[in-house]
Write a structure and sequence with these properties.
This protein is mainly α and 75 residues long. The chain contains 4 helices and no strands.
């Protein structure tokens, strides 16, 4: 989770990812942010977040992104 937090903070230093739980629903992240996050996460965690996983519930919080990473690593 620490590595994920570092990645997210490099992309958007102005967001408190540890406490934010509505990143998509509240419009905190935009499509460019999501693209940057997906690219960085794919590289860092050796996963492939494809279009079927680009759902708001997978990106609303750092915890949700982490759960997605774990799910993809288990597949």
């Amino acid at each position: 989770m620490e590595e994920l937090q570092k990645i997210l903070e490099e992309i958007r230093q102005d967001i408190d990812f540890a406490s934010e739980e509505r990143l998509i629903d509240d419009g905190v992240l935009d499509s460019i942010d999501i693209i940057a996050i997906v690219t960085a996460v794919n590289d860092a965690f050796d996963v492939d977040i494809n279009v079927q996983y680009l759902l708001p519930e997978n990106f609303n919080s750092m915890e949700a992104i982490y759960r997605l990473i774990c799910k993809l690593q288990d597949e």
